Amino acid sequence: xxxxxxxxxxxxxxxxxxxxxxxxxxxxxxxxxxxxxxxxxxxxxxxxxxxxxxxxxxxxxxxxxxxxxxxxxxxxxxxxxxxxxxxxxxxxxxxxxxxxxxxxxxxxxxxxxxxxxxxxxxxxxxxxxxxxxxxx
Length: 136
Hints:
By secondary structure, this protein is mainly beta.
């Protein structure tokens, strides 16, 4: 399960290295080391442990081999993500949601929907999480 959790963090905080331009505005670009704390809202995927992630620059797309989109509001404070990440074991992790960041990029909150599908496309689990990000 840890592999899936790391992908969740990377998708909303960082990990991608695309060269596409990122939004600019009153909210600072996200980079550095962040912790993310996950609280179950509903569903059957269970509790997720705190994660620590580092990034060099704000992502513009989900990390390979994932597909999907990461888009930023004009002021760079709101991030909308929708991604699908396949695994070698044949599962697919789908993540969608919205994160909102402080102007100094030191903290953020998100509501993320998570769906894990097996190789046949049948749901293994689904749920939603309140996520709190803190720059360390």
